[in-house]
Amino acid sequence: MLYLDIIMDTLSQIRELLSDDLRRYEDFIRQAFKHEEDFIAEMLDYLIEHRGKGIRPILALLMANIHSRTGVVTQRAYLVAMMVEMLHTASLVHDDIIDKAAIRHGADTMNTRYGSHSAVVIGDYILAKAFTSGMDSGQYDLVSYITRSIKALCEGELIQTNVSNSLDMTRDKYYDIIYRKTATLLGTCCGAGALASGADHSAVGVARQIGDNLGMAFQIKDDLLDYAPSSQTGKPTCGDLKEHKITLPLLIVLEQASPEEQSAIKELVRNITADGEGIDKVYALVERADAVRLTTEVMDSYIASARSMIDTYPDSPYRTALYSLCDYIGKRSF
Fold first, then answer.
1. What is the CB neighbour count within 10 angstroms for residue 8?
2. CA–CA gap between residue 139 and residue 144 (Å, rounded)
3. How do beta strands 107-108 and 103-104 pair?
4. CB burial class (10 A; 0-12, 13-18, 19+) of residue 240?
5. What does pTM read for this prediction?
6. CB-based contacts of 246, cutoff 8 Å, min separation 6
7. What is the C-alpha separation between 166 and 156, in angstroms, rounded?
8. 20 to 30 A from 32, CA-CA: which of 21, 46, 62, 292?
């Protein structure tokens, strides 16, 4: 079996373990996003049909099962899975508009298919609809817990934009940005999943930390994949550099450089064009500094922290699946 097949098989096995819950969750999300207006219904169906790999609802459902006292999860878990997934989906819709992206998950983005105006509004709509569903069903604790991550997501995007404009990146700023933009939502998935099954404050906190660590690893892996060949990822190499974003591999290069060299490297990044002219020089610097290996070590440290906390859970198929998800996050190739 090819390496890629093994990694995808890992995710398939986790989905198989959660098959009953995922089926109920799919019914739940499709019921929640029905609409009587044909045009709105068409957009909602398109969004739901073209979601990603579903890591966030999987995390929420795994944690809900781990903390269930009865061996089954309730509608509260499906509500959590729906809210975190649609929050993530709305953020991607808005990101694609900002980036003028044409393709997402192998299909037209909402802005490509329906225009930017409709895409903005449908992104806002699914946020409102998701959290209205929580409020209408009286699950105020879950809604309150999950909505806190919206603030962090917006802050992370604004901070990254400001840093990209100035190229004034430090390791502390980098970790802060990826925590707000990515890790906080995975942490929310895990914490809210535990909360949905009645876990106490301490247990919710542990689940949250596991998700935070997995989220940091997930984003660092994304930043590593940005330096991987297009033939592996299906995306252009060094896409972040075209937007003048300094991520950990290049940050490591800058940390090794003298002040004069740092200025020269930043000037190289500043002059990268939209069609990628100048990327080769920066890519060569990353290779020379062994920055991919060093970045991988940082990612692995976050995965190790998540694993050490997963060890505190009683043995179960769901704990094993969380271990497998750690492997998937660290070894995925796209």
1. 17
2. 9
3. antiparallel
4. middle
5. 0.93
6. 163, 164, 167, 169, 174, 254, 269
7. 15
8. 62
Q: Is the dihedral of CA 322, 326, 332, 334 positive or negative?
A: positive
Give ∠ CA 96-279-255 in degrees, rounded to 5.
Answer: 100
Of the candidates 331, 81, 78, 304, the residue with the CA atom closest to the CA atom of residue 189: 81
How confident is the prediction along the chain (334 residues), in pLDDT tens digits per residue?
A: 444 455 558 999 999 999 999 999 999 999 999 999 999 999 999 999 999 889 999 999 999 999 999 999 999 999 999 999 999 999 999 999 998 889 988 899 999 999 999 999 999 999 999 999 999 999 999 999 999 999 999 999 999 989 888 899 999 999 999 999 999 999 999 999 999 999 999 999 999 999 999 999 999 999 999 988 654 545 556 778 888 899 999 999 999 999 999 999 999 999 998 777 889 999 999 999 999 999 999 999 999 999 999 999 999 999 999 999 999 999 998 7
d(CA 247, CA 173): 10
* Structure tokens that stand for 235 in this block: 């995306």
Token pair 């917006």 in the structure block, residue: 154
> What pLDDT is attached to residue 320?
97
Residues 251/172, Cβ–Cβ less than 8 Å = no
Q: Take residue 288 and report the two structure tokens written for it.
A: 């020379």
